[in-house]
Amino acid sequence: MKLKNRTAIITGAARGIGKAIATRFAQEGCNLHLIDVNIEGTEALAAELARTFSVTTLASKVDISKHAEVSTMVENTVTKFPSLDILINNAGILRDSTLLKMTEDQFDQVVAVNLRGVFLCGQACAKVMAEKKHGRIVNISSVAARGNFGQTNYSATKAGVIGMTKTWALELSKYNINVNAIAPGLIATEMTQTIPQEIRDKMTAMVPLKRMGLPEEIADLACFLSAQDSSYIQGEVININGGFLM
């Protein structure tokens, strides 16, 4: 019960990595405010976790690219729960296209959610955490931050998340807030299932461990970075990709 009596906001919680993190945190006794635009899936998950692990949960539909909605989200968190201890900035979208074909709308949509949304959530939560002189922020970046074919927009935002992570770590250390990032590689989620099987096989063959990662493996790392175990880890980007970068 490493997170017992803590409260976490998890964005993009309805499926994939976000859902796995929510489940792992509930197992550790963490109360949860689950955020997603898919409110049906989020409410179902919140009810299931509350019933199974006897934690307090709240589900909200939030467009994290909108300042007013993020502010309300944080206000509702501090109203319902006794504290706000952890933020998992996980929500993200894809609008892939090559540079020569990408539209401004495709670029702007990804930047709005993956970068502006991370900034807005981080800023709003950090203000609450700074008052309490305690907090953990974990930003989900990606191996794509190093560049990936057809992902000018996505790669740029995930590289930006790393820059924000390190900046926040510098600025928030005096408030005893730890800020770190996780950069997953190829993970078996609903999102990667949309990749044609032939391409997925080629990508998996490039991983030394010869398999895709599991959302639960990302969740284990997020739990570690949110718990007291990681209290001296600050401003780091932890790659979890089965050796892909080698």
Helix content: 40-55%
State the helix count. 8
Q: Quick one: how many beta strands? A: 7
Largest beta sheet: strand ordering = 3-2-1-4-5-6-7
> What structural class do helix, strand and pairing data support?
alpha/beta
Give the termini separation. 35 Å
User: What is the count of structural domains?
Assistant: 1
List descriptors.
246 residues, alpha/beta, Rossmann fold, seven-stranded parallel beta sheet, globular
Task: Summarize it.
By secondary structure, this protein is α/β, with parallel strands linked by helices. The protein has eight helices and seven strands; from the N terminus they run E-H-E-H-E-H-E-H-E-H-E-H-H-H-E.
How would you describe what is shown here?
- With 246 residues, this protein is an alpha/beta fold.
- It has one domain: NAD(P)-binding Rossmann-like Domain (Rossmann fold, 3-Layer(aba) Sandwich).
- The chain is 47% helix and 15% strand.
- It has 8 helices and 7 strands.
- Strands 3-2-1-4-5-6-7 form a 7-stranded parallel sheet, sandwiched between helices.
- Strand 1, helix 1 and strand 2 form a beta-alpha-beta unit.
- Helix 1 crosses helix 8 and helix 4 runs parallel beside helix 5.
- The longest helix has 29 residues.
- It is globular, with a radius of gyration of 17 Å.
- The N and C termini lie far apart (35 Å).
- The model has no long low-confidence stretch (mean pLDDT 96).
